[in-house]
Amino acid sequence: MSSIISVRTRGHSVTEITPQVENEVAKSGMDKGLVHLFIQHTSASLTIQENADPDVTHDLISWLDQTVPESGPYRHTAEGPDDMPAHIKSMITNTSLIIPFANGQLLTGTWQGIFVLEHRRADHQRRIVVTLMNEA
Amino acid sequence: MSSIISVRTRGHSVTEITPQVENEVAKSGMDKGLVHLFIQHTSASLTIQENADPDVTHDLISWLDQTVPESGPYRHTAEGPDDMPAHIKSMITNTSLIIPFANGQLLTGTWQGIFVLEHRRADHQRRIVVTLMNEA
Amino acid sequence: MSSIISVRTRGHSVTEITPQVENEVAKSGMDKGLVHLFIQHTSASLTIQENADPDVTHDLISWLDQTVPESGPYRHTAEGPDDMPAHIKSMITNTSLIIPFANGQLLTGTWQGIFVLEHRRADHQRRIVVTLMNEA
Question: Which InterPro entries match (chains A, B, C) (predicted)?
Fold first, then answer.
């Protein structure tokens, strides 16, 4: 079973999508397996991180900004100074994630949430392909 | 088929878990497929790396320390100076891994081992969900 | 179904393998599912990135060189100054990728291509295990 989650991101920020992923698992009626997420973009990405303290995602973004500066220098600059850093930030985080579930519930740890990282300055509509796999 | 591997890590170090993963595949009796590992934490992570020379994992950790310094500055500091760097190091390595197997053997390359990276200074008990999938 | 793609890489460069992956999906005759790629090496890796402008992959490589310098210092130097940086670059990119497909076509976004990143200076023959999984 596969479907698309469409996420409205805020520029240069994170959006938690744990509830949407839980909902995809619940509506499948499947008991045990893996859920795969694939973001169809190269300037936004996915990560699993602590969702208890919002300072954590703030600090993740600050570190990415510091480590992948807009100053470059880069050759690929036609789409703006935030574009090439967005590709690099996507490369070192994740284009796809896989999470196990059982009894229709994600087997994430107590503090783990699923996030879309929007690396561009502008808000975007981002598409994530969700695929469910039965356990063997 | 899914199960939990519980790993006692040493602080700020790596622990190879290749034998435990091989054992999960062997005891399943499955011939061909994929084994998925998912660590239920955001301050420890997974990687596949050379397991022949222990200097390799030493240098991996040194580079992570240098690139993700404890000095930050970070907002999320309540759990100690090693906590926020641990989240960032987890983000740029892996929360999950998938490895193919055939004839009940992992299809890893000659030098590839599976490691838990403990990013906190203290030893921890870390939980990894193992899920096996049959090949199509 | 699983098979091996063998890729001749150019040293310190990227090689796009999207057509080879599309071909594996097409020849399987499968309609919907996931394709898993696993590179059997720890000094070359995989990424999904923009394939429209070749400056993007040029800038990805430049950033990796700057962020993971050959000067180290490293302990693991026996295989040359480009070896330990190659392991680190592999760790922060991907040893494996999973991509969904439907109607026999990859569900990648408009600009997404699949690349092998060769982190060593010399050309290499690299092996990638391809496994296809049916959707639930």
Answer: UPF0047_YjbQ-like, YjbQ-like_sf
Question: For A34-56, how does the pLDDT look when each residue is reduced to its tens digit (9 = 90+)?
Answer: 999 999 999 999 999 999 999 99
Enter the tokens of residue C129.
Answer: 């295990």
Q: Helix, strand or coil for residue C53?
A: coil
Look at the alpha carbons of B74, B83, A82, C84 in this order and tell me if their dihedral is positive or negative.
positive
How far is Cα A33 from Cα A99, in angstroms, rounded to an integer?
A: 9
Report the side by side order of strands in the sheet with B105-106: B2-9, B124-134, B33-39, B96-102, B105-106
- Identify all chain A residues contacting B67, using CB atoms and an 8 Å cutoff: 67
**Phi, psi of B19, rounded to the nearest 5 degrees:** -60, -40
Distance CA C97, CA C115 (A): 10
Mutate to test the interface with A, among C63, C95, C115, C119 (most CBs of A within 10 A): C63
- Using CB atoms within 10 Å of the CB of residue A134, give its burial: 0 to 12 exposed, 13 to 18 middle, 19+ buried: middle
**Interface mutation vs chain C, best among B45, B50, B66, most C CBs within 10 Å:** B50
| Backbone angles phi and psi of C81, in degrees to 5 | -70, -15
> How do residues A109-124 score in pLDDT, each as one tens digit?
999 999 999 999 999 9
| List of chain A residues whose C-beta atoms are within 8 Å of the C-beta of residue B36 | 34, 98, 100
**Domains of chain B, CATH where assigned:** 2-134 (2.60.120.460)
ipTM tops 0.90 = yes
CA geometry: angle at B88 spanning B85 and B92, to 5°?
A: 140
